[in-house]
Specification:
The complex is a heterodimer of chains A (about 625) and B (about 350). Chain A has about 625 residues and is an alpha/beta fold. Chain A has a 7-stranded mixed beta sheet, with helices on both faces. Chain A has a 6-stranded mixed beta sheet with strand order 3-4-2-5-6-7, sandwiched between helices. A 5-stranded mixed beta sheet of chain A has the order 18-20-19-22-23, sandwiched between helices. In chain A, helix 11 (about 290-305) packs parallel to helix 12. The longest helix of chain B is centred in the C-terminal third of the chain and has 15 residues, at about 315-325. The chains are: A alpha/beta (about 625), B alpha/beta (about 350). Strand 9 (about 235-240) of chain A pairs antiparallel with strand 12 of chain B, so a sheet runs across the interface. Chain A: Keywords: Oxidoreductase.
């Protein structure tokens, strides 16, 4: 019973929690990642859930998963394959077995492997009894009945008792990785403050799971992952969506403007809007519009009226916002349009990730309608790029599209909190009372017009969607003027390139292969390239955050390498865009469209192949 | 009536001329829009609002060129979306006096959704709804208010669609202020714009407007000198609903809940039997009956049909922010960044 169990030191571990979409797997996963982050590990997470609120119970389609990767070193991805899989039912086992490492550990809730459960999952026979799992370290725990037994005198009703079974498996995993329970206990105390019975019940089950794992001899070892060596500072865990919301608020504060967000709920962008709605304490004004079109239109109105205005959406929502986005280009008003990309087309795969809105972001409007497009690449840097999107919009008087995606929006990682005093200033070109004002007179460098906010005496003027006369802003159908204005609109966005950093390259400047990516694939590409570099391979990575305009050194960087491969979760939209921009460079592609992020393994395989090609 | 309302505003030194822009007005000669422009400029000059506080917002259509002709802040936006844009302007800056200009196509077809939701939220702005029952700018197709059977370029055999009654739509969306005027009646239109501006919340002013090119005479029965007295009922709050050339016609409520037109002096009907107009009645039932009266069975109701006070959206928005901020522990972004679960790495 008390025999010393073998402890295995590990650099990193990947755990995947899976169960029915009502089983509380997202919460379990979040608790484990928070606790690991507090312990000092670097962490990356990947929630993966069905679009239905409650998909049919016990079926593969209804499985909700949460994968997390924590390590003693820098962690950039949630990991390809799991060391430990928690499967709350046969369907969860069926859906996730392929993601478990050879000889990995699988914890199953044995109680759910009834004839009915097995059949619902689509198995012919009980998988716990056949050869399929022989190579894994299978831990059968009667989670449901042990939870019931533990809470039989708790005074809780049957439903609440069953609901707390996720704490049992969490307790087990805490023991396996030598993690303290106090963070989760504190969380339970806060979350169910009003229901002391529920708090006590969940804590009992958590401890029961912990002790169960400690007691049974089914666990041959446990793991120890030492804290990571990370930069000094104050940290917190943050998801991409929350970081985006906070970056926008930070930009408003820096610019000294009120933040306004007109939006309409859509997966997976909704949390940004929700987070902003909760920030009345910071004076954020949110407007839940009647549709996506009204979402962007209220924001354009608010921008006209002098707010830092933003609107948030996902793929099909961006399509609806298109016409109004054109109005913002024509009227040269600042606006940030956040598009959290998801699987498309149409409704597509709303809860899954993809990068296929790139062309829509760059070109998807009527007329010649340029606007800057930038992309965040990790959950925490959504803050930085939301802030930068705001800075570009306000300083250059233009709508800006910020692209994130479902993978980084829902994913979380520890984040070293910045100080507001460390962020760059935002200088807004406001026109003031007494200024000699012409609506379309321009700054010589940026070519932006000035912003005369209604209410400012003496600056009354009219703007709108019709073509405007250069300088005066009067409606104009003069053919030559349309050419002039088109050229100016194009040139002023091109000049944004003068205010963004050069494209950095990770690795040897003369490497054989250059891997090119953009946006949320950063973690997987970085890990794959770094692992190959460690193996001595001649490979480098250029990852783009600024898509339109491109950094000024882009061509110079791309031309330096013999082989350039562009990796994206689409059919090659960035590749097509780069080909059109740099016609004498040959690009290779690696693309994937499964609603899933890349795996490091598949990337390495492809890069190795390319390295070997003559 | 106009004079009393005018006096209730502080006299401003501004004149209608101050609100005219230097742009040439390009509406067709004889278009009803000219009269409305005139009325708006008169009303603005009479308001206790500095010129720079006005924002005139429009969608697309003939009438939506309006902002260009006004020497105020103006925004000519996109088709149907004026209400959404105006909602954003007012929410962002509640100090501004917002006027929205829309036609029947702009507000009730492509912008129908935004129209009803602006009213539902009760955003403080005055919407002037130009109703000429036709698409003018696209040159003569039927609109959502065109009468059933009307022959137009897209209904060569007559429309088979049921028209919207704008008032019904607005009242269904819980409109607190609904009024109606005629393009040529500058005095009444001016009066209604002032009343609408005073009302806190979304005020609708439906203008029965004539399109001389594509739907000339759509409102003739109501506007013609010969017939207008018999087919117009000018409403005044607290006064009896009497009309007619001889001022001897009135409205009474029948036992079936319908309005009945009666003649004073006939069948024992006396003046005191005629209903008194109560624009402030919170129950919208009578407003519904009055606003839906149509000629020739009934006179058409003009003036303020409904004017019920309620808090506006932006007032509540500002108040909610104040309330939350009063007890909030997070006062700036640094506070937020450091709130909740954080840990130090040394």
């Amino acid at each position: 019973m008390t025999q010393k169990i073998k402890i295995i030191e590990r650099e990193e571990v990947v755990i995947r929690f899976s169960g029915d979409s009502g089983d509380g797997m997202q919460l379990t996963g979040t608790q484990f990642s928070d606790t690991s982050a507090l312990f000092g590990n670097d962490v990356a997470t990947f929630p993966d859930y069905p679009a239905e609120i409650r998909a049919p119970q016990g079926t593969v389609g209804g499985v909700s998963g949460f994968q997390l990767h924590f390590g003693h070193m820098e962690v950039n991805t949630p990991g390809d394959f799991a060391d430990v899989l928690v499967a709350m039912n046969p369907a969860a086992l069926k859906a996730n077995l392929k993601w478990v490492k050879a000889s990995g550990t699988i914890i199953v809730n044995e109680d759910s492997f009834t004839a009915k459960g097995i059949e619902k999952a689509g198995y012919d026979s009980n998988p716990l009894e056949d050869e399929k799992l022989a190579d894994y370290n299978l831990i059968k725990a009667r989670v449901t009945s042990l939870t019931k037994e533990c809470l039989k005198d708790s005074g809780l009703d049957q439903k609440s008792i069953l609901r707390s079974k996720n704490m049992f498996t969490l307790g087990m995993v805490y023991w396996m990785f030598d993690r303290p329970l106090d963070h989760t206990e504190e969380f339970l105390e806060n979350k169910f403050k009003k229901y002391p019975l529920v708090v006590e019940g969940n804590k009992m089950v958590l401890r029961a799971g912990y002790n169960f794992a400690k007691t049974i001899e089914a666990l041959p070892y446990n793991f120890s992952v030492a804290p990571a060596k990370i930069k000094k500072g104050t940290y917190r865990n943050i998801t991409g969506n929350k970081a985006t919301a906070w970056g926008l608020i930070a930009a408003a504060e820096k610019a000294g403007l009120e933040l306004f967000c007109g939006s309409y709920p859509i997966t997976p962008a909704t949390e940004i809007f929700q987070e902003l709605a909760a920030r009345k304490d910071l004076g954020v004004k949110t407007f839940q519009a009647e549709d996506e079109i009204a979402g962007i239109c209220t924001s354009i109105g608010a921008s006209f009226a002098g707010c830092f205005a933003v609107t948030t959406t996902s793929g099909p929502g961006l399509a609806l916002k298109t016409e109004a986005a054109g109005l913002a280009v024509m009227t040269e008003l600042p606006l940030v349009i956040v598009n959290v990309q998801r699987g498309g087309p149409s409704t597509g795969l709303p809860t899954k990730t993809e990068q296929s809105d790139l062309m829509q972001a760059i070109h998807g409007r009527s007329g010649e309608c340029p606007m800057p497009v930038i992309a965040a690449s990790t959950p925490s840097n959504c803050f930085e790029y939301a802030f930068r999107a705001g800075k570009i919009a306000l300083e250059h008087m233009t709508p800006v599209i910020l692209l994130t995606d479902g993978f980084i929006a829902n994913g979380a990682e520890p984040w070293r909190i910045p100080k507001m005093s460390d962020l760059s200033p935002i200088n807004v070109p406001l026109a003031k009372e007494g200024d000699d004002y012409q609506p379309y007179a321009r700054d010589a460098e940026k070519l932006n017009r000035r912003w005369a906010v209604p209410g400012t005496k003496g600056l009354e003027h009219r703007i709108g969607g019709l073509e405007k006369m250069d300088v005066t802003g009067e409606v104009s159908y003069v053919p030559e003027n349309h050419q002039v204005m088109t050229d100016i609109r194009s040139e002023r966005i091109r000049r944004v390139a003068n205010y963004i950093p050069d494209l950095p390259v990770k690795g040897n400047e003369e490497a054989d292969v250059l891997v090119v990516g953009w946006g949320g694939t950063y973690g997987h590409l970085t890990t794959a390239v770094r692992e190959l570099q460690k193996e001595g391979k001649d490979i480098a990575l250029a990852h783009f955050h600024y898509i339109f305009p491109l950094p000024k050194n882009t061509e110079e960087v791309l031309k330096r390498y013999k082989k350039v491969i562009i990796c994206e979760l689409n059919e090659g939209q960035f590749a097509e865009y780069l080909r059109a921009s740099f016609q004498d460079i040959k690009f290779k592609q690696y693309n994937k469209l499964q609603g899933l992020p890349f795996t490091v393994i598949e990337l390495k395989e492809r890069f190795n192949q390319l390295l070997e090609e003559k | 009536m106009t004079d009393t309302i005018l006096k209730s505003f502080r006299p401003e030194k501004l004149t209608p001329k101050d609100f005219k822009s230097d742009q040439e007005v390009k509406w067709c000669p004889g278009c009803g829009d000219h009269g409305v422009l005139n009325s708006v400029q008169k009303a603005m000059a009479a308001m206790d609002v500095p010129k720079e506080k006005f924002a005139v917002i429009s969608g697309i259509g003939c009438s939506s060129r309006f902002p260009y002709y006004m020497n105020t802040y103006g925004f000519h936006t996109i088709h149907g979306r004026a209400a959404a844009i105006a909602s954003g302007v007012k929410s962002a800056n509640p100090d501004l006096e917002i006027l929205q200009i829309s036609g029947d196509g702009d507000a009730l077809a492509i912008g129908g959704n935004h129209f009803i939701h602006a009213i539902r939220r009760n955003i403080d702005m005055t919407i002037i709804l130009f109703n000429n029952e036709i698409y003018g700018l696209t040159k003569g197709q039927y609109s959502p208010t065109s009468k059933q059977g009307m022959v137009t370029k897209t209904s060569p055999f007559g429309t088979i669609e049921q028209p919207f009654h704008p008032a019904e739509l607005a009242l269904g969306a819980q409109s607190k202020f609904y009024s109606r005027t005629i393009d040529t009646n500058i005095k009444l239109t001016t009066e209604l714009i002032l009343a609408g501006s005073k009302h806190k919340g979304t005020s609708i002013i439906e203008v029965l407007q004539n399109c001389v090119i594509y739907n000339d005479g759509a409102h003739t029965l109501i506007t013609d000198k010969e017939t207008k007295d018999d087919f117009q009922l000018l409403l005044h709050h607290g006064e009896r609903m009497i009309f007619g050339k001889q001022r001897n016609k009135g409205l009474v409520l029948g036992g079936n809940g319908k309005l009945i037109v009666v003649t004073i002096g006939e069948f024992g009907i006396a003046e005191q039997d005629v209903l008194i107009h109560d624009a402030h009645n919170p129950d919208p039932h009578m407003a519904w009956l009055l606003s839906n009266m149509s000629a020739p069975e009934y006179p058409v109701a003009l003036g303020v049909i409904r004017d019920v006070s309620a808090l506006s959206y932006e007032e509540k928005l500002v108040q909610q922010i104040k309330d939350v901020q009063a007890t909030a522990t997070i006062k700036c972004m640094d506070d937020l960044l450091n709130s909740g679960d954080t840990w130090d790495v040394k």
